[in-house]
Structure formats: C-alpha cells, structure tokens
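Quarterly update from the structural biology core.
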Amino acid sequence: MANTMDKTIGYGAEQIQVLEGLEHVRRRPGMYVGGTDIKALHHMVYEVVDNSIDEAMQGRCDKIRIVINKDSSVTVSDNGAGIPVDVQKQTGLPAVTVVMTKLGAGGKFGGGGYKVSGGLHGVGVSAVNALSAWMETKVKRNGKLYRQRFERGVPVTPVEVIGDVAADDTGTIQTFMADDTILQTLDFNFETLATRLREMAFLTRGVDICFIDERPELPHEVNFYFEGGVKAFVRYLNKNRSVLHQPIYVDMDVETTHVEAAIQYTDGFSDSVFAFANTINTPDGGTHLTGLRAAITRLINDYARKQGLLKENEDNFTGDDTRQGMTAIVSVKVIEPQFEGQNKLKLLNNEVRYHVETAISEAVSQWMEENPREAKGIIEKCRLAYRAREAARQARDLVIRKSALESLTLPGKLADCSSRDPRECEIYIVEGDSAGGTAKQGRDRRFQAILPLRGKILNIEKTSLDKALGNREIQALITALGTNIGENFSLDGLRYHRVLLMTDADVDGAHIRTLLLTFFFRYMEPLIASGHLYIAQPPLYRVTVTQSDNGKVKRSSRYVFDDSALETLRKELGVDNVRIDQRYKGLGEMNDEQLWETTMNPENRTVLQVSIDDAAEADRTFDMLMGSEVAPRRRFITTHANQARLDV
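Predicted structure, tokenized:
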C-alpha cells in the first residue's frame, strides 16, 4: 500500500525563524568561535587582537596591549587608525556601530581599508560582541575619544564623545566580558594566550605586544617584540637543539603574495614545520605549506644530482627524507585568503602554492650555491634519513602483517574487548604486568581492552623511526590500535575511540606517561588532535573520614587523588578526622574492585583529555624535556623545582 502521509504537516511558515542581529551567533557559537569551552574563550581574545594585528600589517600600528582585568574582562588596545565613527551611508548608522553589530561588515571586503587581513570572514569582533555579557568600544580619532556600550551584542548607548585626545593620538580600545550563560568558563589560561601572542609578535615584525594579567591571584606581565620575524621564530624553536647551519631566510613578494620563511636543519629525527596566513596559525596546513614542502624536496634532489651526491642508479629522496630534522616557518600575506571554516584551520588559495614555491626555490637555491659545505651536510642528513626510512619500512611492514591475534604473543599481552564498534570501545595502556592483571580482572570486558606494557618504551625523541619500530612494546601499541604511524597514519583503522594511559602515581609512572605522550605526539599526532587520547586518574590515597551527625559519629571511606586534595580535605574536616588507610604507590596495590570503582568505571572515573593548544610550543617543549641536549632540561628543572611534588 502506498504511503500517503502528508510530508508538509508540522512544517509551515510559523516554523521558519528569522533571527535578528547577532542572535544566531548566540544560538550557534560553535560556528563562530568553535564551541563554548576554554578554547572558544581564548578564540574570542584572538579575534579582537587579530583586528589590531591587521592594523599593524597596514603600517598603522606598532603597539598592542592586552589586559585580563581583575574581573576577568579583557581589554585590547592599539594605536592604529581607530574604527571610523562617521555615518555609514548604506545603513545610516555610525560605522563603529555597524562593525560591532553586523556580520560581514568591516573595511576588509574590497573597500580599500586593508590590503591584507587575518579577519576576512568579517564575523570576528561582532561575534565577540554577541557572545559577551557586555562590551565597550572606545575610539580615539579626530582629536576626540568616542565610546559605545553593548550588552549581548545590542547597543545600549549611542556613540558619544567622552573626552579630547591629541590630534595625532588614534586607536581602538575594546573591552569585553564573556557571557557566562554561554561560555562554560571565564578562567583564561595566561600561558596559552601568551604563546599565541608570542607567535603574533614573531610574525609581525616591529610590533610591541604587551600582555598583562591583573587577576589578584595570577599577576603577570610579558612583552613581545621581535625584529627578526620568522627567522627569530625558528631560532626560538631550535633553542634547545643542535643545528647544522644558520637559518635560511626568505622574504619576497611574488605577484600579490608576500612570502616570509625561515628554514634550519637540526640533528633531530622529526620535522617541525608550521604555516601561517596573514598571521593566522593554520594547523591543518594548506597551499602555502604544500608549496614549501614541494620546493624543498625538489631543490635538494636537484642539488644532490648536480653535485654527484646522488648517483644515477639511486632513487630520489622523498619528502619525508628531506624534512627529517627540519624546522621551518612559512608565513604568507594574502589579499583575499580563502580559509577552511571560520576557525581558519587550512589555507585554500591555489595560487599561493606557486608563489611560495617560487620564493623558496629562488632563495634556497642561492643559499645552497653560496654555502656548499652546509648544503652537503643537509644532503648527508637526507641520505641517513633515506636509509632509516628503508629500514623503518621493513620493520613497519612486519608490524602491519601481524594480526591482533598474533600480537598476543608479544610481551605486552592485549586483552581485547568483545565489542567490534570502535565508537564504544576503549583501550587502557597500563604500566606493568601486575597492574595489567588487576585491570583485566576489574574491567568491563564488553568495551574495555587492556594492553600492559613491560618497562619503559624507547624515548623516540632520541631514536630514529627504524629503531623505534624494532621495540616490541611500540610494535604492540601500533598493532593494537590499528592506525599505522607517521605519514601512513589513518584514523580509519582505529579500533578504540578512547585510548587511556594508566600509569602509577609516582615518578616512574610519570616518566612512562611522558615517554608515551612523546611517542603519540611525534608519530600519531592526529590521534591527539581528534580527541582520542586520555590520561586516567587513579587515586593516590584511600582515607577514612570521621564526621559527627546529630551526636552520632560516622565513618566513611573516600579516595583522594593527590596531595593538594588531601590537604584541602584536612582543612575542611580537621586533620584528626582524616586518617590515611592506604597510599597507592602503584596500580597493582589496588584490587580489581577498587581499580574499577576509582579509575575505570565511566560513571565514577575522572580522565584528562590530551589536547594540543599550540603545536609549535608543544614541539619545543617535547624537544626540551625529551631531547638529547641536557642543559635546557637542567635549566627547566632548577627553575621549576619549587613546584615539584616529591614522591616520599
């Protein structure tokens, strides 16, 4: 019988909603700032600062000041031209009101106000306004100080003159208080913001960026100013590495694109390459990164052939070979950049690849001709990478050929779960056979797999890929996860959508966790970026708490996860009312029921999701902590020794 249901029932004109002004930004914040979490909170700051950086790129601004105020509002000020305050003919409103309340409004859409800009989606400051409980815009222009106030994106005052300034004193001052009814947190992270502002200073030469945190418990002030541009950026990233030569610097206009890049080879085994477009970090790369990589690979092969360093019967170096140990920054300024998504993760302009290739080819080929000894050193580095790649390919093929069943014979014995739906499956990577045995007994076999690792895996920061793949524990990891590694990594084969690192709550456990994080960052970074990697939080203590209730003494057991939580509990209830029953130096000291109850039961457990807020800073930190250079690590340890929690 035919289906005669009227598909129009319940869907008429009354179901069509027209959201006025910026209301759709408040309804769908993820479309504009990426969500409602702390990353979105920080993104609001970046959107406002980007406008000041745009002024700097036009040569109209050389000072930017960012302040987290005592009440957690944020003020961003610059000495640029100041937002126009005269009436905009199209709307009949003051231009500053239009910029602050209309999506797609601004001087970056062909009106001649900006040649290049980072905020070309035209939703930046207006989206911040929409997601703020209140926002106040001040403009210094025409010898006057103007002000307008907004609440949740709606003007609550007209544009008014509140004072006089010097005729040559211009700029914009934006202060906003993020709306805590939309944002999950207003607790800014100083280091995360400082890292991004440092990047902006590297990428915008000659601009003084001052960042101040006035919150009473977190007073900080830093200044960033770099005349060296991206060359200084590369030196900063390689501060803790042994380098083969001075940075190769590229600064060139090719047609409508300005290309700035710096390239330096180190004795390391991984590459650190980062791309920016109009000072916007593009973590997913794009055409500018493709142009850099293609140019470097072609130039090195051409030079090696020309100098007889590659014989006729030898294959060309691959891109992987030519990038091993390379640190590079490529930064382009584009008149009309096309980004993938509002968060600008990837640059799409096709012409930029050709422009970057042209600039890199000209500058690097000239450098190689002028520096033959250093160029030969790079070729030898590539040759070593080629040999290691061939050895790694053989080792990787061996690992891939092993089925999950075969991996059961490895020292890290995989106890798989019964479910075959990766979305509901999780795997615990556990330190030691003893803890692994407890975890196997305490788990839910339906969706939880256990992979015990014996001892410490190799520190891959100091190890080539072929040697890493010869390690049985690393082989077990790769086989169990099913993703392959490095350039061949694919999330399509991931067998568990939650990968949890579970190590002892002592120094050795922290070291093993750091070794694992280094491995995942270097060879399985997309696993972290896509939110699949977690750190389990086993308790450090089991305590008995004594409390009085209507004259009756009651005792109960609790689990405490660290020393600070224990101290807080003692202050709350009194030292005599909190008795330590057991300190769990190792996971194996807990029985299976305790481990399930505290660390593995999804209804009770606490886990930390691993994320990468800034790949360049993460790269530098891993190299400093896990690399071969001892002095930088020693400086870090002595500087932060007073923050350490000793395992006694």
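The chain has a mean pLDDT of 83.
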